[in-house]
């Protein structure tokens, strides 16, 4: 194990702890939106921002892996999608796949939502779309947390 790999493993574990807190905050905001319909718009803004943060945090970890382990980050117009695909691929004698194809499919939904959040006013966010994503967060989080911890173990 080299020092760079060990540092990356530590960084992954630290970021996962922070992301766990964001997941919990997102779920709390969703519950409050349901409990306080008169202020639902404020809580839905929080939900949207935290869903964005969950995806952005995961993507940031993928960028670190791509830069420090793979030696390359996609530069295409669709680099966000390509980065997720890159993480599903094993690189022989370098690293195993970081995530499963199932995680890729889930993350792609969150990636598309990240794009939406960055490009529309929050007043145009669809509560039904938020609900569909919030329902998928537990599955996504369970799987991503396991896969990234396993990858951190590989690095260490």
Explain what you see.
With 156 residues, the chain is mainly α. The protein has one domain: Four Helix Bundle (Hemerythrin (Met), subunit A), CATH 1.20.120. It is 78% helix and 0% strand. The chain contains five helices and no strands. The chain has helices at 3-35, 40-70, 79-88, 101-119, 127-155. The protein is elongated. The N and C termini lie close together (6 Å). The model has no long low-confidence stretch (mean pLDDT 91).
What's the quick description here?
The chain has 156 residues and is an all-alpha fold.
List keywords for this structure.
mainly alpha, Four Helix Bundle (Hemerythrin (Met), subunit A), 78% helix, elongated, 0% strand
Secondary structure: elements and pairs:
Blueprint: H1 3-35, H2 40-70, H3 79-88, H4 101-119, H5 127-155
Which structural category do the helix and sheet elements fall into?
mainly alpha
Count of β-strands: 0
The structural domain count equals 1
The name of the CATH architecture is Up-down Bundle
- CA-CA gap between termini: 6 Å
Q: Name the CATH class.
A: Mainly Alpha
Rg, nearest Å: 16 Å
Which H/E pattern describes the elements? HHHHH
Largest sheet: none
Count of DSSP H/I helices:
5
Oligomer: single chain
- CATH topology: the name is Four Helix Bundle (Hemerythrin (Met), subunit A)
Unreliable stretches:
none
What share of residues is helical?
over 70%
Give the overall shape.
elongated
Portion in beta strands: under 5%
What is the typical, i.e. mean, pLDDT?
A: 91
């Amino acid at each position: 194990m080299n020092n760079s790999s060990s540092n990356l493993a530590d960084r992954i574990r630290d970021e996962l702890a922070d992301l766990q807190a964001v997941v919990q905050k997102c779920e709390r905001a969703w519950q409050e939106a349901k409990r306080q319909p008169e202020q639902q718009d404020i809580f839905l803004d929080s939900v949207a921002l935290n869903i964005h943060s969950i995806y952005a945090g995961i993507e940031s970890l993928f960028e670190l892996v791509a830069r420090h382990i793979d030696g390359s980050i996609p530069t295409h117009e669709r680099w966000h999608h390509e980065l997720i695909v890159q993480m599903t691929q094993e690189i022989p004698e370098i690293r195993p796949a970081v995530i499963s194809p199932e995680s890729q499919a889930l993350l792609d939904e969150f990636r598309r939502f990240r794009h939406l959040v960055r490009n529309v006013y929050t007043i145009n966010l669809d509560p039904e779309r938020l609900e569909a994503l919030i329902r998928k967060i537990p599955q996504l989080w369970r799987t991503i947390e396991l896969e990234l911890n396993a990858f951190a173990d590989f690095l260490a």
